[in-house]
Amino acid sequence: MDSLQVAKSEVRTESVTTVVRRLDKGGVKTGDKLEGGLGAVTEPCDQQTFTLQEWDKAHPRWEEFVQCLEQTAPEQSPFVLGEYSRHLLCYLCVALQNEQVVGFLRFGIQPIGPEAHCPPLVLNGIPLTEAKIHAFAVREERRGQGIGTALQRWVIRRAKELGCYQVASYSSYGRDANYHIKLSLGFGVQPEVHGDNEQGAYFIMPLMDHRERDESTQ
Question: Rounded distance, CA 41 to CA 38, Å?
Answer without folding.
Answer: 10
